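batch_manifest entry 22 of 60
target: Lipoyl synthase
source organism: Pseudothioclava arenosa
requested by: lab member K.T.
priority: normal
notes from requester: please return C-alpha cells only, no post-processing; we will run our own comparison against the previous entry in this batch. if the run fails, retry once and flag.
--- input ---
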Amino acid sequence: MRDLKIPGQRHPEKAHRADQAQPKKPDWIRVKAPVSQGYKDTRDILKTNKLTTVCEEAGCPNVGECWSHGHATMMIMGEICTRGCSFCNVATGRPDALDTFEPGRVAHAVQTLGLKHVVITSVDRDDLDDGGAEHFAQTIRAVRHRSPETTIEVLTPDFLKCSPRALEVVVEAKPDVFNHNLETVPGLYPTVRPGARYFHSLRLLQRVKELDPTMFTKSGIMVGLGEDAQGVRQTMDDMRSADIDFLTIGQYLQPTPKHHRVDRFVTPEEFKEYEKAAYGKGFLMVSATPLTRSSYHAGDDFAKLRAARLEKLGRL
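--- output ---
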C-alpha cells in the first residue's frame, strides 16, 4: 500500500523516526564552544538571580555568542513543560507552583545586564487556568519599572486550553513584540507538535493584532524536519493572512537521539531563497539562516523592524 502524502511534508512516515541515522552536520551549522569572559559574566548574573534561560534548556547553538554580549532569553515559570513536543529538549512533566518573586528577579537581571531589548519566554503551563498569562504580565511590568527604556519581546505558549482573556492579559501589559512560534508546517504537527493546533496558533497571532494593531507580531518555523518548500511557502502565506510582521526560519537540530530526527540540512542558499520569498509576500522583517532562532539578534532585528514600519508608513 502506498503512503499518502500530506501537503507540505516530504516523507510522511520516516521523517519523524528518531532511531534513523541523521545526515552529517555540515560546516555551516557548526559553532565554537563558549569560553569568553562575557559568557561567564552573563552566566554568573543569571545564576545569582536563580533564573532559567531557554538558551540552556533548549540547547541553543548561539548561546556562546549571545551570552558573550550579555544577551540572554529569560524562561519563566520553571523548567518543566506540560507538553511533549518531539523537537524540544525542555523536560516534560508536572511543573512546580509559580514563583511569585520571579518577575522581580528577571527585572533585576535585565537591569544588571543593561539590556536594551529582552526576550521573555516560558514553558507551556497547561496546569494553570490562565496558562501563566498573568505571570507574563507581572514580569513585563516589573521590567518596565526597573528598566523603562528596555524594549520587551515575549515568546508565549499558545494558551490553547485557556479562555480568550488569557491572551488579552498579556497584550494589555504592552510588550513591544508578541512572538508565538508555529514551529513547522501544518502537515507535521501530529509528530512534531502533537499537543498544539496549527490554526489556533495562527488565530492567536491574528487576535493580537485585533487587540492592538500597533503591536509587532512575530513567528518562526524550523526547517529540516521533513517539510518541503511548497509547505514552507504556504505557511508564509498563512502567516501573512494573520498580519504577522516578522518571520524567522532556522535549521532544526536534533537535541538527543530520542528526539525527532533531522531529515536534512537546508543549505544557506535555500535560506536565502526563503528570505527573498518572504519579503516578497510582505513581511516587514525576515531572519532566515541555518543558525536563526527566535531570539537570536532580537534587539538588532527589533530596531530594523521599527525602521521598516516607518519606511512603509512613509510610502503610504
